[in-house]
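## Example pair
The file below holds two records. Each record gives the amino-acid sequence first, followed by its structure token line.
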Amino acid sequence: MSDTRFSKPLIYMLIGSAIILALSLGVRHAFGLYLVPMSDEFGWGHNVFSLAIAMQNLIWGAVQPVTGAFADKYGSKIVVAVGGALYTLGLLLMAVSSSGWMLNLSVGLILGLALSATSFPVLLSAVGRAAHPEKRSLAMGIASAAGSFGQFIMLPSTLLLLQSMGWSAALVVSAILIALIIPLAWTLKAPAYTPLNSSISANMPALSMKEILLIAKNHKPFWFLSLGFFVCGFQVVFIGIHLPGYLIDHGFDATTGTVFLALVGLFNIVGTYTAGWLGGKYSKPYLLMGLYGLRGIAIIAFLLLPLSTWTIYAFGIIMGLLWLSTVPLTNGIVANMFGIKYLSMLSGIVFFTHQVGSFFGGWLGGVNHDMTGNYNMVWVISILLSLLGIVVHFFVNEEHVVHD
């Protein structure tokens, strides 16, 4: 029997990945808190800030396969270090953005590029390559949970900074924290897991990037999986960016929205870890079907129940358990289908559809609000997309197309 324990280099990589994801996703998760103060100061409609966030998600997704390919070829640590530098620059420019075009340059373009190098596809792929196949889903779940912890910590911290220093100074402080990603990138140097006495690996010829892309292109379950991730992106960005504004519209203060998002981050620690653990024992597509179905039920219950502090916080807890639990499961399926050699690139392709969904979730939320004064249309779309998320995963399986 092979030893499935985490090696010391993998443990160091997990710690480094955890801190990087906590910083990267924690700062990004708090962007929704800037929507109201920046829009109020410059007289923007919600659509201006929403469009910048939507562009960020679209650019992030569009370049993710390319960033992933660079990470596969040249190593994750170089890509993550460059991403950390871009992230720092983008936040500093966001701090002085006083027009729509500056906001789109900083938040949309630069931060979109930075996030493609400092978030799940690159970091989870690095972790997945270094882990034993039987522990891969769990390792990804641990790293994903760390990103959730960052969301929990950064939200109240960002609100405190906004209230005490203003939005511009808060962004400068965030930029200083993000700069820590650059030295942390050098923890990502655990070697790829090599199976012992693997006749399959020894006898199979190495595939080129072009060959693996052709195989993925013709593999229908891969595209059904990608379509499911579109649903995830739409829902989490719409709720993450617009729920604080939705609550303000209904008479709640900014603290309530912050606590909601903090609860999402806190309980997502449990959700992502549990999803990674369950993914090592049960069918990942079936688990994803359950997650999307529960999201739809939670949204319907939130809209039908009387809106109160307790229903808001309960919604935050439930959504937190379901929030990014899709990530270790989805990345684990990609690794099972195609192996680990080109995992960053292939995960990046799936993630692109997630970000297309994120674009529409962020942008349509702002458009719907500016046109009607509410978010009713986008809530309905989110519920219908949950049904789509259930259906498409009927057609996803974890069969090996390419072995490690």
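Second record, same layout:
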Amino acid sequence: MIPIAVYYNPACGTARSVVEIIRNAGIEPKIIPYLKTPPTLSELKSLVEQGPVTARDLLRTKEKLYTELGLDRPDVTDATLLQAIADNPILLNRPIVVSPKGVKVCRPAENVLSLLP
């Protein structure tokens, strides 16, 4: 079976929809409750390396902390963005899906379809 992981926040309706789409395709995804078990800086770098997501794609811009930390400035480096997410997992965009076909922020939920077999 194809391994698929979802960086998941149970309070997020889009994340719940993504998991449902994956399960309807006959795949049981690995659920990563990232607020309880935050990704390390190394894991975040790996997500970007797998692509096609960028460090900025991984960033949740709707969080107040995003502007408080000055992450909205265009000159902020990828290294700084990833470190901010590692230090503050609430800044991780969601849901992020990892599959052999790549990594995507699946917002809207239908974006997950391109990652399924």
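Notes on the second record: Residues 13-24 form the longest helix (12 residues). The domain at 5-115 is CATH 3.40.30.10 (Glutaredoxin).
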